[in-house]
Backbone:
């Protein structure tokens, strides 16, 4: 019987729109969680797939020991694809010429991710191959020049002879920086044994490459764990590269946006449910007077809530999934080779959010609604339905739980939650004070304003609560708006238009003016020229450094040579992480040549973290990159013994530098004071921006200056720009979502007071107040509320922005001057506009209609 | 003939109150709203409770109808000891035996006129609720308004719907709290006529709260409420006969 009545009432309520605000709030909460989680996961997997292209696999196991076939078999049984790779340096001979080369020996399946392009001749229309076969070697073009041979000629590698099968046009996992690196030779891994190059003690890097779905990769990691030795190490995708850090910040932003979105949607649900209860207490009293028991009333309204919840959660899940599928589709179109992975996590997280919002936020008001005494039918007014302590406690707990579930980071969620709580308390206090202060202020004002202020004051508590939600909504929107702007501008600064995309290394003193001239002829501008010499670090405070273990050394050496020269932020970082990770000896040596430079001024992307940059009078000093300093356990004032070209000298450590490896600018581990190195023969490094249409210049350069190496970072720049554009778009979408949530909270709030306002208006109208006067009073009230909320939100936003920027995003602190007019302005316009929109029909009603409605 | 004599000899008692008191605790004082009210209303009687505003009429009505509980004393409604029943039992009793007409109509805004009328019948599990509802709407002259929502009806029309709603379960007892106070005199008079007509038709016991002496006169008995104390005005027997 009650079901019948419940069902009938439900459809009626639905038709009258009473339940929509709750439904919409729940739907929004679910949608926010599903879409944000989904989009975050897609962006994350797209990015890691992208990075996979750069290591030619999804996962790599590096080893200094020969391949353990058992590991490959394990991977095969898990359905993963595998490839082998060996890397080492050796000499090649062609006729009378010989050259140190960096050999990469791979299997046919290489590359598992990304593209390998091999040209079978030097002609532009040459046949392209996508993988290598046995007995083939492919060379980097400059190696042909260095050895003075052509495709089809023969070269000797160890005891084997090979015919040059072609040149390498594109190598997915080419080092991003090759300064000082030997040119590349690509061969088949099965041919290595025959060359007899690999001898006991040779420094060979072995790489097991795997690709496949992430679950299988995880399983693999677990299964091969017992087979690994100290010589084996998983290579992780570096998240701190330029791309990685952009993504990291974006992820944090999405996370934060999601958390704030949840808070807003939960607020909206709570407000909507309270309002619903408020508006329905007479109806409950009536049906109870007509003989419905409290339990039955509870069942009726709980069933309404249940139906609304199921409906809204369903819609929310659907729309959320659509949004994240849309995002996936977008990424797929954008990236081409993106393989979307379906994940159920967003869905169950969203459903859970909906359930928690429905039960913990709405259940309490509905519970109290059913408890309204039947006696109320004889009283002319209902009791007011303020938030009670139970709702605050359960609601607070629910928000916290949701934040935790969503972020998987209890620290961040607790922190943010407490912050919101503190803000709410602060706002309550401020609101109370302000509303009280408004009384004497009203004395000299026009009567419309006086009425508005009187209204504000009379409803101090409901208004304080309203003020809190208004402020919170504005505050969260402002935070996200400014953080988004901040992040995007930060990323754009990182890769400004016209940033150098070509690096030139190995320029001699005499070539220097020629290069400048050539660039000038082409209307291009060379950057600074950095002098470079190769040197070794022998001692620290006269203590000879332990030679690092030979295992892994070839790898590490390669990395560092790239890294300390220039531009190689990505690999530098990767290697640094790797080497600092196995800091087994107290002071680990570097044991190989480093590129050293000397400069009079501190490079732009460097910050001194300890000590001071050399003055002009300072002699024999060195500035060390902070991570390297850590690894060498250096203190300021330590004396480092160097050797350059067999000539030893000592320098005192005078400063530590933090280097922005993301900057794609020349970076150095060690910078010496100018006096130290002027007597050594140096070559120069420079960088310049080359527009796409002028790429032909590179060939001309290669012909005129065969010994100069050119490195293009166009690819990585393009990658970063793509990702920034993509992530910026995602951020904008999320901002819009959160703004929608904020508006919803405002609407729910204003609607909550609608009935009361109707009665007030009726009374004022009967007393003879003119429509214009009432309109002004209502607008003034909302404007005042909006302004207050805007000011609170602005102050709080500025504080939180400062904290977030510095703590969570590691961005420099800055004041947001725009905030100070956008915040209060937005508050006033938005709340005034919404108030007007929602109350307009009431204000325009003819008095008799208004009276009848108010009294019925 | 015999039956009639028996009935007059042993009138069925519908409502009985013994030493009813109602007190409420205010922040700084204890307020007595009802003091030692004793009352017996027989089946089929029409009783008016008159008194100044704030004298405690509605409070008494609430207690007699089982909407509220007294601080002390006993109440029997349709033979049931209300003071011993819990909330739910009282609600079930109301669903079976009681109808209400309120001062401010109190229709459910989300239901149509017809649905408002049939609601108590559905709650009481009556099968032909809709047919009954339509008939009652016809009785109050609102056949054409059956599918209107309360907001589309005038005050008088709303109260007519409320009256139809009150009678649909054919309750033994009808409580009306100032049913015409919110209406203009002419409409109010029509409403009163309707109320008494339906009451006569169904033979319902009527407890009518009003501050209007004219209206009170239409009832068989008039009770006077003054500052929480109830006294009965003896009706001139000749008038009734
Ligand atoms: N729960 C209560 N708390 C405080 N005062 C009450 C309560 N219920 C009724 N009253 C007071 O008791 C008096 C009688 O109320 P009521 O029975 O509604 O009067 P009437 O219906 O005769 O106008 C009024 O002064 C009213 O304010
Ligand atoms: Mg009353």
Residues:
């Amino acid at each position: 019987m009650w079901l019948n009545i419940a069902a009938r009432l439900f459809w009626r309520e639905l038709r009258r729109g009473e339940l929509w605000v709750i439904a919409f709030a729940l739907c929004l909460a679910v949608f926010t969680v599903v879409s944000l989680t989904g989009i975050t996961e897609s962006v994350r997997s797209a990015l890691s797939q992208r990075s996979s292209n750069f290591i030619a696999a999804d996962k790599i196991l590096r080893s200094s020991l020969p391949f353990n076939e058992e590991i490959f078999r394990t991977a095969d049984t898990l359905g993963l694809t595998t490839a082998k790779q060996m890397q080492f340096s050796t000499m090649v001979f062609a006729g009378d010429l010989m050259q140190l080369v960096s050999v990469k020996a791979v299997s046919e399946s290489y590359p598992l991710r990304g593209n390998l392009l091999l040209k079978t001749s030097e002609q532009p229309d040459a046949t392209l191959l996508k993988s290598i076969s046995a007995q083939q070697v492919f060379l980097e073009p400059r190696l042909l020049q260095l050895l003075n041979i052509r495709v089809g000629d023969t070269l000797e590698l160890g005891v084997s002879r090979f015919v040059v099968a072609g040149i390498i046009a594109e190598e997915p996992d080419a080092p991003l920086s090759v300064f000082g690196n030997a040119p590349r030779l690509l061969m088949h891994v099965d041919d290595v044994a025959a060359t007899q190059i690999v001898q006991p003690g040779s420094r060979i890097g072995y790489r097991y490459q795997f690709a496949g779905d992430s679950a299988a990769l995880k399983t693999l990691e677990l299964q091969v764990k017992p087979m690994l030795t100290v010589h084996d190490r998983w290579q992780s995708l570096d998240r701190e590269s330029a791309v990685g850090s952009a993504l990291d910040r974006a992820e944090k932003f999405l996370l934060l946006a999601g958390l704030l979105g949840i808070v807003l949607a939960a607020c909206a649900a709570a407000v909507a449910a309270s309002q619903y209860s408020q508006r329905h207490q007479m109806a409950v009293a009536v049906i109870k007077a007509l003989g419905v028991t409290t339990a039955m009333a509870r069942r009726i309204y709980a069933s309404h809530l249940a139906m609304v919840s199921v409906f809204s959660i369903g819609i929310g899940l659907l729309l959320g999934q659509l949004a994240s599928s849309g995002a996936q589709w977008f990424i797929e179109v954008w990236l081409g080779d993106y393989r979307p992975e379906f994940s159920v996590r967003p869905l169950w997280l969203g459903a859970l959010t909906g359930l928690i919002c429905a039960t913990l936020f709405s259940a309490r008001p509905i519970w109290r609604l059913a408890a309204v005494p039947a006696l109320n039918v004889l009283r002319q007014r209902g009791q007011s339905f303020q938030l009670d302590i139970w709702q605050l406690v359960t609601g607070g707990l629910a928000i916290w739980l949701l934040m935790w579930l969503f972020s998987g980071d209890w620290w961040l969620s607790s922190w943010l939650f407490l912050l919101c709580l503190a803000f709410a308390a602060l706002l309550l206090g401020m609101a109370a004070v302000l509303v009280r202060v408004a009384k004497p202020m009203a004395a000299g004002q026009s009567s419309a304003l006086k009425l508005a202020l009187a209204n504000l004051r009379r409803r101090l508590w409901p208004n304080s609560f309203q003020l809190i939600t208004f402020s919170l909504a504005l505050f969260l929107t402002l935070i996200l708006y400014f953080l988004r702007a901040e992040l995007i501008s930060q990323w754009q600064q990182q890769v400004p238009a016209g940033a150098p995309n070509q690096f030139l290394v190995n320029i001699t003193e005499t070539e220097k003016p020629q290069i400048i001239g050539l660039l000038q002829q082409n209307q291009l501008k060379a950057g600074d020229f950095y002098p470079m010499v190769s040197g070794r670090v022998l001692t620290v405070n006269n203590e000879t450094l332990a030679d690092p273990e030979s295992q892994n050394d070839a790898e590490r050496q390669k990395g560092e040579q790239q890294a300390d020269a220039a531009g190689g932020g990505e690999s530098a970082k990767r290697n640094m992480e790797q080497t600092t990770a196995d800091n087994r000896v107290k002071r680990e040596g570097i044991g190989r040549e480093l590129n050293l430079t000397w400069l009079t001024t501190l490079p732009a992307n460097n910050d001194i973290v300890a000590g001071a940059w050399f003055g002009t009078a300072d002699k024999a000093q060195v500035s060390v990159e902070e991570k390297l300093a850590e690894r060498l356990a250096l203190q300021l004032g330590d004396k480092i013994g160097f050797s350059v070209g067999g000539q030893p000298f000592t320098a005192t450590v005078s400063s530590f530098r933090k280097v922005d490896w993301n900057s794609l600018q020349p970076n150095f581990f060690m910078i010496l004071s100018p006096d130290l190195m002027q007597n050594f023969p140096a070559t120069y490094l420079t960088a310049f921006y080359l527009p796409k249409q002028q790429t032909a210049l590179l060939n001309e350069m290669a012909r005129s200056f065969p010994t100069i190496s050119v490195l293009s970072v166009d690819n990585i720049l393009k990658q970063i720009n793509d990702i920034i554009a993509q992530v910026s778009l995602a951020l904008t979408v999320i901002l819009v979502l959160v703004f929608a949530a904020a508006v919803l909270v405002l609407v729910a709030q204003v609607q909550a007071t609608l009935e009361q306002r109707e009665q007030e208006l009726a009374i004022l109208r009967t007393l003879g107040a003119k429509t214009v006067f009432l309109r002004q009073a209502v607008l003034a009230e909302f404007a005042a509320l909006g302004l207050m909320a805007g000011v609170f939100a602005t102050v709080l936003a500025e504080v939180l922005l400062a904290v977030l920027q510095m703590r969570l995003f590691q961005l420099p602190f800055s004041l947001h001057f725009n905030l100070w007019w956008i915040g209060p302005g937005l508050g006033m316009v938005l709340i005034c506009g919404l108030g007007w929109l929602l109350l307009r029909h009431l204000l325009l009603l003819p008095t008799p209609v208004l009276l009848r409605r108010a009294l019925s | 003939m015999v039956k009639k004599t028996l009935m007059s000899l042993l009138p069925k008692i519908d409502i009985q109150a013994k030493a009813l008191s109602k007190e409420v605790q205010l922040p700084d004082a204890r307020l007595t709203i009802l003091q030692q009210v004793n009352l017996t209303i027989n089946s089929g009687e029409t009783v008016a409770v008159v008194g100044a505003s704030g004298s405690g009429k509605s409070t008494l009505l609430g207690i007699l109808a089982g909407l509220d509980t007294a601080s002390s004393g006993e109440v029997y409604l349709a033979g049931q000891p209300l003071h011993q029943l819990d909330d739910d039992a009282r609600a079930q009793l109301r669903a079976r035996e009681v109808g209400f007409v309120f001062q401010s109509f109190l229709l459910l805004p989300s239901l149509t006129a017809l649905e408002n009328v049939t609601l108590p019948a559905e709650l009481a599990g009556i099968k032909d609720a809709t047919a009954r509802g339509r008939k009652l709407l016809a009785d109050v002259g609102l056949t054409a308004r059956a599918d209107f929502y309360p907001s589309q009806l005038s005050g008088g029309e709303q109260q007519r719907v409320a009256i139809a709603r009150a009678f649909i379960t054919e309750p033994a007892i009808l409580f009306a709290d100032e049913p015409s106070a919110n209406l203009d005199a002419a409409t109010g008079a029509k409403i009163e006529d309707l109320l008494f007509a339906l009451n006569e038709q169904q033979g319902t016991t009527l407890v009518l709260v009003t501050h209007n002496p004219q209206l009170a006169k239409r009832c068989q008995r008039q009770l006077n409420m003054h500052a929480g104390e109830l006294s009965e005005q003896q009706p001139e027997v000749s008038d009734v006969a």
About this structure: Chain A touches chain B through 33 residues (CB under 8 Å). The first strand of chain A starts at residue 59 and ends at 63. Chain A has a mean pLDDT of 77.
